[in-house]
Request: fold
Amino acid sequence: MKPEVIVALDFDSREKALKLVREVGDFISHYKVGLELFSREGIEIVRELSNQGKKVFLDLKYHDIPNTVKSAAKVAVESGVWMYNVHALGGYDFLRHIAEFNREYADKLGLNRPLLIAVTILTSMSDEDLKSVGIPSAVEDEVLRLSELARKAGLDGVVCSAKEVRTIKENLGEDFLTVTPGIRPVWASKDDQKRITTPKEAKKIGTDYIVIGRPITRAENPRSAAERILEEINS
Ligand code: C5P
Reply:
């Protein structure tokens, strides 16, 4: 099924995260562990979910010198993550180095190679913000440039907004993966997301994965919220 739903486990404890996973049950197999949960619980929660057969997207957006990121990526690969990400702003050599390491190390351990995804420009940044850090181009041009760099370096795809999916796929190929947050079913609260896309629209534009947090994690009945979202995608 495309897009596949990844539920963002934005919780402050292992217990709350695991409770949600239990409640949602068989409906969802992909979960995102981000900075909050990781800072609280460390790699243990990732191992625990992987051992339960869940596919974990470790969203730590690595950005450091290649050697340091390699050491962190090592832990991600060993822990059986399904997907993790790095900042494309680390540059071509950095990206290529990590992509090669990711492949070789997973092979060496006899594990499935995790998908390696690039973060381009954070959606919280505007053209003005880019200028202020010395990047004169518009956000959308920079997103495409960094996506091209990531593809050339051998990464599997990018995290991007729904608005960017078509441009990226048209320029880099349908098989270059897109992971899209900012998704809200019509019945859910927008929370702090400004530009939102429904699961149905996300399917229409052809994104591969959608990241959904609060509409499921903060729902009165997370299981039926997940079910409604999957129905919307399949209808
Ligand atoms: O609760 P909600 O559905 O808004 O959660 C979306 C998840 O996707 C959060 O974990 C958030 O950090 C992440 N995300 C986002 N927008 C981006 C990149 C990541 O909402 N541009």
Q: What stands out?
A: Residues 8, 10, 34, 123, 159, 181-182, 191, 193, 211-214 surround cytidine-5'-monophosphate (CB under 6 Å). The longest helix spans residues 92-109. The beta strands are 4-8, 30-33, 55-62, 83-87, 115-119, 157-159, 177-180, 209-212. The two ends are 12 Å apart (CA to CA).
